[in-house]
């Protein structure tokens, strides 16, 4: 295998690890609630701690990549991941899990900041789009496999009591610790290239942030991404508990399977969205998928058990295109400082911390079903973006005749 192919495989492995580790949180939520005797509010701090780290480190992470380079940033990211995973594995207590998830979140955020420019540098400008799609497919595959593997491992452990099931999920974090050590070694041994950041990947200094934050549309797009990530993580983290509470389905069985299908259909939706974006204006695609998502959430929350186990994953298909469309609409609406704007937008990942926590807080007071109706507000805001967004550059679409090879 050539050095270039080896480094590309390493990058794809990083994408797989980011997704697999991140998407274990959802299936773990009901298990943590039972084992640690948590209220819904306390359980909400699990995704909160992880995604709070994402929001806090996105902009500083961009500055770190510029000043220290890719290899140093990767090293710090893996060290943070290792520290967080070991904290959870050694002391599987609620406080340690909160601190460990926060530390892992810091590392994962740094990985996402550095891995895209590294992918472009290794793969080359001409192949960047191809490799980016490949990375998203790898990410989607890991998102699908993570809850599925968790479900199968929990089933093998049986239902003989907390010690058996606790050993399974703690074992995951021991395995993650070993994996992060191996990634650290690979980071030192592989001949990683020096990153040459493009203008739209640079932060452009603090003055650029002041200019951007003075714009109303930048704030609205930021809120849109907060709404999207909050919606995605609320569904991923609370659907298993919802199915257990209202339909008495096993969190480590049917609940984890539903989470796996949610992520699997999201990957499928990305491919469908790519095709639709060749035919329709991105704002129309966003409006269509937002309306479908609202319908799926309504059916999931107020339908029967059979409808809920289908509607929750189907919502993943509908959410699939939202992040990329909102992000691209924001970039295409601002003429300059795209690197700084990307940092601001990525900070919107804070939504994954805020909304699941708010749902847990309200769930203790008005019930989880009513608390999850907050999704109607966030998805409606995303739908509104399709109406008010005025991009300077619209996505290129192909005439129907051209698609069939006609002149």
Explain how this protein is built.
It is a single chain. This protein is mainly α. The chain is built from 18 helices and no strands. The longest helix has 32 residues, at 216-247. The model is unreliable at 159-163 (pLDDT under 50).
What Rg is obtained from the alpha carbons, in whole angstroms? 21 Å
Low confidence ranges: 159-163
Summed up, the helix count is: 18
Total number of beta strands = 0
Major sheet description? none
Strand content: under 5%
What order do the SSEs take from the amino end to the carboxyl end, as H and E? HHHHHHHHHHHHHHHHHH
Q: What is the rounded distance between the termini?
A: 44 Å
Helix content: over 70%
3D shape: globular
Structural class: mainly alpha
Q: Could you tell me the mean pLDDT?
A: 87
What is this structure, in a nutshell?
The protein has 407 residues and is mostly helical. Helix content is 82%, strand content 0%.
Task: Map the helices and strands.
Layout: H1 3-22, H2 25-35, H3 40-68, H4 70-90, H5 94-123, H6 128-157, H7 162-189, H8 206-213, H9 216-247, H10 251-276, H11 282-302, H12 305-319, H13 322-333, H14 338-347, H15 351-366, H16 368-371, H17 374-388, H18 400-403
Entry keywords:
407 residues, 82% helix, single chain, mainly alpha, 0% strand, globular, 18 helices
